Amino acid sequence: MLSASAPNEFWDYLIDQSGLTTERLFYQLGNFDDANEFLSNIDEGNTYYEIEKKIDVGKGTFSFVNHAIQNAGIEEKVEEVYEVEINYFSYGLIYRIDEKWYYGPEWFIENALRMAYRINILHR
Q: Given strand 78-86, what is the order of strands in its sheet?
């Protein structure tokens, strides 16, 4: 899930800056206590997903995603960002960096992007 939702360098940055293990970072971003809670949530939504709606995000969201990615030391710029609705019940962000698409569920990717953005502000 991590590599599908952002470049590996992004996750390396968050792990390094937060001091969390990969596993703890993942659970914190998803607001899960442990693997059992995560797996029970995944089992509930373990179905085929289809994008029902793709919406251009505004300049503010686009800029936020791009800054968070740049803060993590990724040189390539974000090229496109969309909010997507999946099977009429789940939302997320899909974005493209250097011809590669990334997707993250809203509850996960937005927390990760906020964390990267805040870390940069704290280090100024």
A: 51-56, 78-86, 90-97, 100-105
Going by C-beta distance under 8 Å and a sequence separation of 6 or more, which residues neighbour residue 67?
117, 120
Q: Do residues 42 and 60 lie in contact, with contact meaning Cβ atoms separated by under 8 Å?
A: no
Query: Phi and psi for 47 in degrees, rounded to 5?
Result: -135, 175
Residue type, 92: G
Query: CB under 8 Å to 117, separation ≥6 — which residues?
Result: 64, 67, 68, 71
Question: Where on the phi/psi map is residue 32: left (φ > 0), alpha (ψ -120 to 50), or beta?
Answer: beta
User: How many angstroms separate the CA atoms of 89 and 40, rounded?
Assistant: 18
Provide the token pair at 109: 């990717």
**Buried/exposed code over 10-36 (b: 16+ C-beta within 10 A; e: otherwise):** bbebbbebeebeeeebbbbbbebeeee
Give me the tens of pLDDT residue by residue for the chain, a chain 124 residues long: 677 889 999 999 999 999 988 888 888 887 777 777 766 665 555 455 677 889 999 999 999 899 889 988 999 999 999 999 987 667 889 999 999 999 888 888 888 888 888 887 766 5
